[in-house]
Amino acid sequence: MKQIQKRKNNAKQQEKKKFDSSQLIKLMTAQKQKQQKGSKDVENLIGMSFYKIPIQKFSPEINQYLQKYKKESKNMHNFKATVSFIQCNLSSLEGLKFDGKQVKHLRADYNSLKGDSLQFIAQNFPNLLTLNLKHNQIANLEDLVHLQRLKNLEYLNLSFNPVKQFQDYKSTIFQYLPELQNLDNDADVDDSMQDTSEDLMLYSSEEESESSFDDYEESSDEDQKKKNKRKKVKK
């Protein structure tokens, strides 16, 4: 119980922090470098993935960084296939400038995305095979209509979204996606505070994830101290 409460408190603290685009890009770069140190198999699986980076919204600077990330990727096939923004404090995907036609797997779980995000995804990621949006704020059955544009979708996870409260939820999904093979993992087990195997691939431990924020703040403090010393020397 103490560990769960600690995670909740850490999540709240991170949400309160305000990061500008340059700070976010520094965090994203650090996370990318940690991913690249992992095994080749893990890199191929996760593709372009960001975990617990408080992006909130996609600025022009972040979009430019994502394009640079794409160009620098050594394994373009797998990079294009998988994109993840997990627990990134996103309330919308608007502003994301990314050619998603070749993306096969999209994860944006543990955010605060609403129903209009389904329209954005259908328009910008039309060839998805899997879509994971569990633990978001999709609330209306009417928004599910956009899913019918995802003709190739085989797996969909909308677990722990308000829309699941409706009795017609499943029938509506299969009305729009008759070829869907797996919906919500066929089970509603609240895993909101658990580390799944996929999450562990992104970070070897919760502490390591949290340290990325601390490392940034420490490095910023050190940089500021160095600048102050330089100013004193000049005087």
UniProtKB/TrEMBL annotation:
Presence of the UniProt keyword Oxidoreductase in the record: no
Pfam families: LRR_9
Single GO molecular function: histone binding
Alphabetical list of SUPFAM superfamilies matching this protein: L domain-like
Bias kind Acidic residues: ranges: 185-198, 205-221
Biased composition (Basic residues): 1-10, 226-235
Region of interest called Disordered, as start-end residue ranges on this chain: 1-22, 185-235
Keyword Transcription: no
GO cellular component assignments: nucleus
Keywords, comma-separated and alphabetical: Leucine-rich repeat, Repeat
Listed InterPro entries: AN32 (IPR045081), Leu-rich_rpt (IPR001611), LRR_dom_sf (IPR032675)
Domain of life where this protein originates: Eukaryota
Family, per entry: Belongs to the ANP32 family.
Name of the protein: U2A'/phosphoprotein 32 family A C-terminal domain-containing protein
Taxonomic source organism: Paramecium tetraurelia
